Model the fold of this input.
Amino acid sequence: MPQRRDMLRLGLAAAAVCLALPVRARQAPAAEQGGFISRKLNAPVPGGVAVLALGDAATAPEVTYRDRRVLVVREDGKQWIAVVGIPLAVKPGPQEISVRDGAGARQLPFTVRAKEYVAQHITLKNPRQVNPDPDDMKRIEREMAEQSAANRAYRAGVTPSNLLLDRPVSGGRLSSPFGLRRFFNGEERNPHSGLDFAVPAGTPIKAPAAGVVSLVGDYFFNGKTVFLDHGQGFVSMFCHMSAIDVKVGDVVPRGGVVGKVGATGRATGPHLHWNVSLNDARVDPAIFIGAFKP
Done:
């Protein structure tokens, strides 16, 4: 009996310690709560999207991830959700967003799942497109800064017209998928940051959702390019175009033509390269058109 009483006292003491420890409430991803957008878009992998429920406050919470503002929308007229772009370089494991609303500031955790991306080997006839010369590098650095600024832009208070997007071109197959490890003439370069559509030159490129043209240029790697800002850091980029039919500041409706498919810049043939950015992270466009493969 004394031994049993000692065990009982130990058990009660352990329970008291457990009750004294602070408990961090778990906020379920919005996808687990059945929202339509959440079920369609939640793909928390490197280069993917995490959709997190934020509650039903009267006004939209302010959310940041890795020091970037995050897209926040109200889902089905009810709860707020954060639609978080996860950079391709993020390792699988725990991550968190920072949330500020009427109740104060808090950290909201989520988990990034693993995903394997395959390799692609490409042969280019122009060696400067693999190893640019010093003058090329000056141009590339200038162009990268310009394009990075367009991707970082955050039009606050603008709710994107659509989060489930249309394909920007009609017909054609999806060729190079997002996330490929790329080797040009045997040398590894940055992973493929967009989705390629194999369609003929001259095919019209249409806005997958309404937006404002934020940048137009003719770049060393991307060729003729248009950036379309959908709002709150949600940006489409169309590359290797043969013709551009819009200018900076144009408001383009969903389905509006921004230009035509081509093979300008670093391209081996006519195709559309389509990038999608969220909170300055390039993410897989296939997620937004129902073509994502886990």
